[in-house]
Amino acid sequence: MGQYLIYFLLYFQLSTLSFLSAQPLCHEDERLALLQFKESFIIDKINTSADRCVFPKVDQWKFQGVDCCSWEGVECDHNTGYVISLNLSKSCLHGSINSSSSLFRLVHLEKLNLAFNNFSYSEIPSALGNLSRLTYLNLSYSSFSGQIPFAISKLSKLSTLDLSLNSGVNPSEGLLELKRPDMKSLVQNLTRLTYLDLSLVDVSSPIPSVLANLTSLTSLSCHNCKLFGKFRKMFSIYQTFSSLSSQLKVLSIWMTNFSGEVPASIGNLHSLEFLALSHCKFTGLLPPSLGNLTKITHLGVENNSFRGDVPSFLSNFTNLEFLSLGNNQFHASEIPSSLENLIHLERLDLAQSSFTGCFPTWLTNFTQLRFIDLGFNELQGELPSSIARLKNLQYLDMNSNNLSGVVELNTFLQLQNLEFLSLSNNKLSVLSKTSANASLPKLVKLRLASCNLTIFPDFLRNQEGLQILDLSFNHIHGQIPKWLWEMSRKSLLLINLSHNSLTSFEEPPLVLPWSSLMRIDIGNNMLQGSLPIPPLSTAVYLVSNNSLGGEISPLFCNVTSLQVLDLSDNNLSGMIPQCLANFSNSLAILNLYANNFCGPIPSTWESGNKFPVHQLGS
């Protein structure tokens, strides 16, 4: 019996070795093509944003042997050894790409993912049309620009096409356009598409009727793509295709120019899970047929002109995780109790909706909530201390309501995940005393304007990542403490301490130390002493209506990024630094009114050259 077992094990081992040796190595010409493709880029780990540079896969290739089928991001056919999939997303690639690239020698490719790289605003190469086996193509978020080539329309096997979010310095401004060919020409042959994302592509056309041919589509995203026309027309295209109604799960067309009413036929999309219609030009009522979409988890309709009552059918959406209704024309009333059923909510936006009544205490039972925006309503009464139950909360905006009473800041500091807190412009009295041993959240934005504060909240001295701090229109008096200069030195972008009763600076630094600061407002206080010098990054510097004295330091000449400078109504003296005249290309507003300056006015200002607004004094 033992010898049979030995024979069996020997046979199994030989069979395994034979099978492994039969697995083909990658083809030499494709290995060389991949290496040439790698060498055509800089692997930029330093100057690339974190979301575009997670893992530079091609850097590992030289350590992973001669068989390119084993390389990171590369997949080969098990039978032929040809490269069939290349996934180099978030690989820190930096450089241009064109139709002569060695990439296009990989003619057996079925999947190509180059998303989240930086292709230096080069055009999408027309040679992509030669990769006729492609079923998956993702070129999103990769700094491509120009016209999308007609060649992509030849890829008739595509099931996924993602050309979204190719933007420049302004992330909301797309660089790709789809005009010649237009959207109709691009998709008319792509009848196998299940996923299409053209977000941020400049389409600038009505919705094309050929979309009705995409009967396998499960996801359509075209947000901020300049589609326009009546939304009803889009659905008249779809009505004859029942298969689309049964399969479409994602419809994202926010920030388009669609207008008119939402048709009742939208209720036929029974599989819909994600519906984003926000920031458009929709009017009328939300159709009751929306209540049929019981699978929906995301509903965004904010920033339109919907009217009527907040629909009661929302109570049917028990799977809802995201609800945004803000800035419409719904009838003003209390926040409807029909929302009590939405216990899975993670995000709730009801801002700018004229809601009255009290903060709904049932909302504090929604322990999965991460985001609440109830700003710019007419809510009254006190904020319940039970908000402290919302342990996952990251964002809370109660700005500009009629809330009143005393609220302890410590209630919010128990929320360890909190990053954004705004209680500004209510009738609240915020008590800032916190426990000495409190484990504090890492706030990014804190707005406590008009909160009847009398001292600087002490917990701020431990905040290292604040970007925005607004403590304006309070009753804070005395010195600006020296620990404030140490707070969030690298991250702070905006600080507003205006309209308080501040009198001086405790141990002020020669230059304010916040290296990224863009805006500082310490106006309308009672500050005395020398004028602080802003950081080099400062664009807006407001110190009006104080009692600051002395001369303007020559170090101001280094702050060449200034766009707005208001030093009015102080006791500043001496000559106006001549170097300020050199800021005429960037400085849009200069106010030196009501000081004690002497000497000549810079000649470039007298002639009015390139200086739109200035007020120099009495």
In short:
Keywords: Cell membrane, Glycoprotein, Leucine-rich repeat, Membrane, Receptor, Repeat, Signal, Transmembrane, Transmembrane helix. The chain has 618 residues and is α/β, with parallel strands linked by helices.
Main traits of this protein?
8 helices; 22% strand; single chain; 618 residues
Describe the SSE topology.
Blueprint: H1 2-22, H2 28-39, E1 42-43, E2 74-76, E3 83-87, E4 93-94, E5 111-113, E6 136-138, E7 146-147, E8 160-162, E9 176-177, H3 183-187, E10 195-197, E11 219-221, E12 228-230, H4 231-238, H5 242-247, E13 250-252, E14 257-261, E15 274-276, E16 281-284, E17 298-300, E18 305-308, E19 322-324, E20 329-330, E21 347-349, E22 371-373, E23 380-381, E24 395-397, E25 402-408, H6 409-413, E26 420-422, E27 427-431, E28 445-447, E29 468-470, E30 477-480, H7 483-486, E31 494-496, E32 501-505, E33 519-521, E34 528-530, E35 540-542, E36 547-551, E37 564-566, E38 571-575, E39 589-591, E40 596-598, H8 603-606, E41 613-615
What features would you describe in this structure?
This protein is an alpha/beta fold and 618 residues long. Among the domains are: 20-120, Alpha-Beta Horseshoe (Leucine-rich repeat, LRR (right-handed beta-alpha superhelix)); 476-618, Ribonuclease Inhibitor (Leucine-rich repeat, LRR (right-handed beta-alpha superhelix), Alpha-Beta Horseshoe). Helix content is 11%, strand content 22%. It has a 23-stranded mixed sheet, with no helix packed on it. Strand 2 and strand 3 (83-87) form a beta hairpin. The radius of gyration is 30 Å and the shape is globular. The N and C termini lie far apart (112 Å).
